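Q: Structure tokens for this one, please.
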Amino acid sequence: MDRPHRDTIFLEDARVLGVEAFPAHQYQLRLQAPRCAANATPGSFVHLECAAGPALRRPLSIRRAEPAAGWIEVLFKVVGSGLRSLAQAQPGQSLSLLGPIGQGFRPDPARPLAVLIGGGVGMPPLEFLAERLSADGGQAWQPMAFFGSEVPFPFKAGHAGTPLHGLDHRIDACHPVLERLGVPSRLASLAAFDGCYQGYVTELAGQWLAAQHRDTRERAALYACGPQPMLQAAAKLARDFSLPAQLCLEEYMACGVGGCAGCAVEVASGAGTAMRRVCVDGPVFEARAVYPALFAAG
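A: Here is the predicted structure, written as tokens:
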């Protein structure tokens, strides 16, 4: 049996280097985990111990990895007792970590215009992807990011100095870290944040795509991560604009390494449909495989 994840997942005692709190109970952890940092790819995640004792690990997407320094960053929002304990972690504390886990994004050099759509705590894999693409000097990638949140963003939003073709100039809220990397970005929210598009992030991305010339869209591919309704809307965008698309799924899981099959989802395959484990077969899948009926209807 083909097991592409074998010998690629490492068990480490990760040392907490820092904890940063953001509004709405959002936290970023920087962890010293050299083997994970050296092998992480955008879309991969870790299964992290939250506290000593019987509590289950939590799957957390990798937001950033620095192989030379040996650290990774993860972002999470407190939604239960396990993550509440994790938010109280202190620098120097050791946490058991499994990672990196999963099959990440697979950018296509034939489609260098990478349209990244992230929602809520689904933003980290796209931040990671944007950073890696912008640093790839061997390929002329052109990533651009559209992020949405209904709570304050887990970064201090900036204001872009250059308008994006097809968008109202008043929509200028951006991700400042990505902008410094040369990655254009825009933010969306229903919470009336200053400079944000007032609506869903997929609507914002759709407005931009609709304003582009067909030749531009033929160079584009879509990559998305976020809650299920957002992923379905992103898949519809891909269908409507004839774009290849990859979706990073979020599912509850117990073991995180393919043993329990508790995270299995039904996807389309050449032989019909099949059950695939989000943890090791994903979490990134082709949009057509996740939503075959949507594409058939188009």
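A few notes: The first strand starts at residue 10 and ends at 22. Residues 10-101 form a domain with the Elongation Factor Tu (Ef-tu); domain 3 fold (CATH 2.40.30.10).
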